[in-house]
Design goal:
Layout: E1 9-10, E2 15-16, E3 18-25, H1 35-51, E4 55-61, E5 65-72, H2 78-96, H3 98-103, E6 115-119, H4 124-132, H5 146-151, H6 165-168
Antiparallel strand pairs: 1-2, 3-5, 3-6, 4-5
Helix pairs in contact: 1-2
Length: 171
């Protein structure tokens, strides 16, 4: 390489780039991610990501929600990533900031859901165009030798195999 960091993750038999944009909010939308709590959320999320092999590309902690752009390995599902980020940060925040426990009883700091979408350098349109330009693609999905099969003459006629006489005798 030419001194740049390779943007792809490499395994024994894989080369991949998985990036996800996550957004989730505080329970009830309370604006509590300010000053020292907001700074601690940022530090915790970076720490959790580092421990799980996730790379933080960008992040933004707002008063009542978090945006993160994360690079991920292929062995972590989106739901598992959200579980780690929200679960571990919630647990630590509620322990470190007692005033939050009064507002968030029941150990639930974040709302139940989250938003996630994939992002990358290649757009959906670019992928569609690349696939379409491979060859004539009927109905958007082609088998690589489909055209060759259509040009072949019909298969040889069916010849039934005679049944062995031993089967007729019952024994």
């Amino acid at each position: 390489m030419d001194g740049k960091t390779d943007r792809y993750r490499r395994g024994a038999h894989t080369v991949l780039e998985l990036k996800y944009h996550f957004v989730w909010k505080t329970k009830y939308g309370y604006p509590v991610l300010t000053s020292e709590v907001g700074l601690r959320v940022r530090a915790l999320l970076k720490e959790i990501c580092a421990s799980k092999g996730l790379t933080v590309e960008r992040g933004n902690v707002r008063s009542n929600h978090v945006h993160m752009l994360i690079g991920a390995p292929n062995d972590l599902s989106v739901s598992k990533i959200a579980q780690y980020l929200k679960g571990k940060s919630s647990y630590r925040l509620l322990r470190e900031f007692p005033h939050l426990k009064k507002r968030y009883w029941g150990s639930h700091f974040w709302s139940r859901g989250y938003f996630c979408c994939t992002v990358g350098a290649v757009t959906e349109e670019m992928i569609k165009r690349y696939i379409d330009e491979q060859d004539d693609v009927p109905d958007g999905f082609q088998v690589w030798d489909e055209a060759a099969q259509r040009d072949l003459s019909p298969p040889p006629a069916f010849r039934p195999i005679s049944k062995p006489s031993s089967l007729d005798e019952g024994g």
